[in-house]
Amino acid sequence: MSDSYVRPAHAGDGAALGAAHARAWHDAYTGVLPAAALATATPEALAAEWEDAAVAPPSPRHRVLVACAGSTTAGFAALVPGSDEDLDPARAGELAILVIDPARQREGHASRLLTAVVADAVSDGVDTLVTWVLENDKPLYDFLTGAGWAADGATRELWVDETGGAVIRQVRLHTAVSPMP
Q1: What is the pTM of this model?
Q2: What is the biggest distance separating any 2 CA atoms in the chain, rounded to whole angstroms?
Q3: pLDDT at 161
Q4: Using CB atoms within 10 A of its CB, is residue 134 exposed (0-12), middle (13-18) or buried (19+)?
Q5: Taking each helix axis from N to C terminus, what angle separates 14-29 and 43-55, rounded to the nearest 10 degrees?
Q6: What DSSP string describes the chain?
Q7: Cα–Cα distance between 83 and 60 in angstroms, integer?
Q8: d(CA 46, CA 69)
Q9: Positions of the chain with pLDDT under 50
Q10: What sequence ranges are listed for the domain N-acetyltransferase (predicted)?
Q11: DSSP assignment of 37-57, as one string?
Q12: pLDDT tens per residue, range 56-102
């Protein structure tokens, strides 16, 4: 019997979520994002943000889900209402982030989190999920497209330094979701 599962985030999860987030971002985005942008991704700074998200979500449709391996936090995902101008916020949700600690990758945690996100979205009456992926984040892009997500043609550019000199491109992926029969 597996001791891997997904549960809602709760008070006290911030430190573990912040540490996993920092490790995952530094592992995946060193050399992709400017060093100054990554320098702000400290476990402590991220812990405070994720603790707030866990204990005081801005709406009932804002959720943080935690993937666990026994008592260890393996990763997490956040589901929020869709906020892009071309989406109906009542019918669309957004996978705001999907993070798996580098030490826990390839253990099925991302798949379990994605399944839980879809289930929560369906319970909210959502019929479309979207997410934004860095254009050159091939592992995440491949994982999501392998799970049935597809690019919908939307792109955006984000300036990731104070001078506006460092720009990253993102592509939006989407998937239709529906209640299980």
Answers
A1: 0.92
A2: 52
A3: 65
A4: middle
A5: 130
A6: ---EEEEE--TT-HHHHHHHHHHHHHHHHBTTB-HHHHHT--HHHHHHHHHHHHHS-SSTT-EEEEEEETTEEEEEEEEEE--STTS-TTTEEEEEEEEE-GGGTTSSHHHHHHHHHHHHHHHTT--EEEEEEETT-HHHHHHHHHTT-EEEEEEEEEE-STTS--EEEEEEEEEE-----
A7: 15
A8: 21
A9: 1
A10: 4-174
A11: HHHT--HHHHHHHHHHHHHS-
A12: 999 999 999 999 999 999 999 999 999 999 999 899 999 999 999 99
Domains of the chain: 4-176 (3.40.630.30)
Cα separation, 21 vs 19, in Å, equals: 5
Q: Tokens standing for 157?
A: 């550019």
pLDDT at 180: 60
What tokens does 48 get? 């405070």
- What pLDDT does residue 163 have? 60
